[in-house]
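From the shared-data thread, chain only:
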Amino acid sequence: MRIYITGHRNPDMDSVCAAYSYAVLKNKIDSSNEYIPVMLGPANGNTKNAFARMGIELPQFLRDVRPRVKEVQRKPVNTISSSDPLYLLMDIFQRRRPSVVPVIDDGVYKGLLTADDINGFFLRENSGVIRQRYLLSEENIERVIEGEYLKRGNAVEIRAPYMIGAMEYQVYLSRLERLVDKPVLVIGYRKKHILAAIENQLPGIVITGVSDPSRMDIDFSSFKGFVYLSYLDTAETLRLLKLSTPVSDIIPEEDPEMNIEASMLFDDAKKKLQESGYRGLSVFDKGEWTGFVTRRCFLDKPKQRLILVDHNEAEQSVQGIEDAEISEILDHHRLAPPRMRTPIYIVSEPLGSTCTIIYEQFKKWGVEIDPLTARVLLSGLTADTVILKSPTTTSYDEHVARRLCEISGIGDYEEFGRSLFSDGTSLAERDPERVILSDMKSYTEKGVRFAIGQVEVMSLMEVPDIKTRYLEELEKVREEKALDWCMLLISDVIKGNSILLTTPFERCSHLIYEKIDENTYSLPGVLSRKKQLLPEILRILEE
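Structure, as tokens:
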């Protein structure tokens, strides 16, 4: 089974590195499942550069985990070609009881058949038409009716009515004359009737009840149609003759609007099938037929299994999480997980980084950490603790950082840390919207909906030059996300100070921080959004 390991939306380095490293561990200790690290949004510049320097690809992007048609569609087990006889199709439905049977010609999809299409074929005879015209394949006759050809005709397929020559000769002749379409004659060995059929150049003659073909003393040399000798009686021959009709004659013309895309949501496809009245619908992926769905496909909704790292709240996780099955949570934030029906494995510790928790899991399972994975873990730990300067850093984080340096062969930890936060691009050169949204957390407290984004820089010197652009973008983000308050914490990872940019809000004047300009505050010694800024925000909201 495929299990996704995902960090939160707007992924930071800790969540990406934790998902990547935990997938390494889980794939080593559990060979029965495939663990895939994913991201729920674009990685920030620091994370991209860190993974590039390590020579590994970033985890794949996962848009949502809502079940889709491709997860429940069926591949054909029973197929038929358009030239096959209806007899063969009926045999498939009788013996195997499928909901639908796809028509495939040399790998090319032609249509989808159900028992309703077979019923429709036989209902034609009650449609008010005096004499039904049938599509007849000379090849299919010998596949369905026990017998042999005395003479083959010039046409591979013909469309004609059937006529049984059981009537008195003069009546038979008058009937032939009145028919608009020349029929295929089904008859016992009645010489005068057959000679009249030759003279009238009927499209074909099926002679029934033949026990000894050598006793035929009729010259068919001038006859252009086919002559087939059936070993069966007339009634059985006629029944099977109708069933020799090629499947192509009953393939319904598909309405493109009724086709389903493989990417269509499970619930939408289920509703479409229910409203269509059909037993099944064809599935296409970028114009290519990939299978079909029937009512049975929608009896049970599939659930994607997930492992959440660096978060536990549904609002911060992947879209469609309500349709998924969460099997594990590893996090260092406050717990507010979605409701679950069964107990799951949860590790929640007040540490500075989720990567520290992942390190513990390697130790718990007795799995040696390779140098590359150690570097990935160290990157996430260093980024989330701001080179171990954040107040969320614990002594155990420091111990793990030293141990990961040893495993990965990193001698100068401070230099390693500075390299993580230097992506070579100043805030002036970056897109304000992407900076604000790249690491934004949303909250609701006391009826106030607010969000705090955070970006780490090597210096706060350029903030006065860029703050007007970023404040304007903050207001746009606030409006688009229907927030009451929106903030951006710009943190200097070298000196351990921050500047807070904020949209106008009535409680801003109650902040304990020094106001250095309009909607701009100085936060000396503040690096942690969770442990330092958020408590102050909650304080003024509670007053």
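The chain has a mean pLDDT of 92.
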